[in-house]
Amino acid sequence: MKENWKSFLKSISLYRPLRSVYGRWPSFINRIVYRKYKGRGYTCNFCGAAYMKMVPEYPGYDIEKALTTNQVIAAYGENVYCPDCGSRNAERLIKAVISSYLPIHKKKVLHCAPERRLFEWMGQFSDVSAVDGSYAANLPFRNGAFDLVIANHIFESIPDDQKAMREIHRVLSRNGAAILQVHYSSFLPGTIEYPTLRDPQQQAALFGDKEHVRIYSLDDYVLRLIQTGFRVRVLTPSELAPFRRYGIQETESVFLAYRSH
Ligand SMILES: [Zn+2]
Q1: CA 242 – ligand 1 centroid, Å
Q2: Which CATH architecture has domain 89-259?
Q3: Cα–ligand 1 centroid distance for 84 (angstroms)
Q4: Terminal alpha carbon distance of the chain
């Protein structure tokens, strides 16, 4: 889409609604619309479709300022949806990381706020449980029940995020691992938060998402995980560069958290 057309749609507040409808279109329509992008460049690691580019998604007018002002790394950009199966960049990144770093064959996995394609893929060879993200601070599972926990962008919405971190630590087995993705900023000197705020418009304007109550600074996020008892390994964008062929968010790091005691 041409930049000035995009700006025009944003100015009349139509861009975000159009994008969200567009993102939900059935695959067959996307396949027709994006036929011209078929080719080499990006391959979906869920369905194998190959494209020169995938379906873009940009933040809407209501959240864009908070994300750009605070230089937030979020899952928007030129290559978000797979035109064929609809997988998102965040799902493709997690699948790639699991495949390369965390063997899960026959392991017990907890998938918080599950993404459908990722959940179905893991279910083929692992024992996967799912839980709504809102339960993360009170997980209904016994201590040490899981070898892997996946929580993709849930801490930003939870008032007591460190309680949710402690819960995930509790349900992990000894030497278990978690993939704990959040929106974060390397630019902010500290996390900005208002945990009790319940006003979607203000939350969107302040934190770049109508359900979020904070934007983490990178250092503070890692510190909170360490304070919880995790041993943290941050996979940097350069370490993740081999996965760019799957159309991932290229500036995003991945947070691996290991139960160390
Ligand atoms: Zn796909």
Answers
A1: 18
A2: 3-Layer(aba) Sandwich (3.40)
A3: 5
A4: 51
Ligand 1 centroid distance, CA of 254 (Å): 21
pLDDT in tens, 171-217: 999 989 999 999 999 999 999 999 999 999 999 999 999 999 999 99
Q: What is the whole-number distance in angstroms between the Cα of residue 247 and the centre of ligand 1?
A: 10
Q: Give pTM, 2 decimals.
A: 0.88
- Cα 37 to middle of ligand 1, angstroms: 14
The per-residue pLDDT for range 62-99, each reduced to its tens digit, is: 999 999 999 999 989 999 999 998 899 999 999 999 99
DSSP secondary structure, the chain, as one string = --HHHHHHHHHTT-HHHHHHHHHHS-HHHHHHHTGGGEEEEEE-TTT--EESS-EEE---HHHHHHHHHTTEE-S-EEEEE-TTT---HHHHHHHHHHHHH---TT-EEEEES--HHHHHHHHTTSEEEEE-GGGTTS--S-TT-EEEEEEES-GGG-TTHHHHHHHHHHHEEEEEEEEEE--EESS-SS-EE-TT---HHHHHHHHSSTT--EEEEHHHHHHHHHHHTEEEEEE-TTTTGGGGGG---TT--EEEEEE--
Domain boundaries, the chain: 3-81, 89-259
CA of 218 to the centre of ligand 1 (A): 30
Nearest by Cα to 93 from 258, 253, 221: 253
Q: For residue 54, how far is its CA from the centre of ligand 1 (angstroms)?
A: 10
Distance 51 CA to ligand 1 centre (A): 10
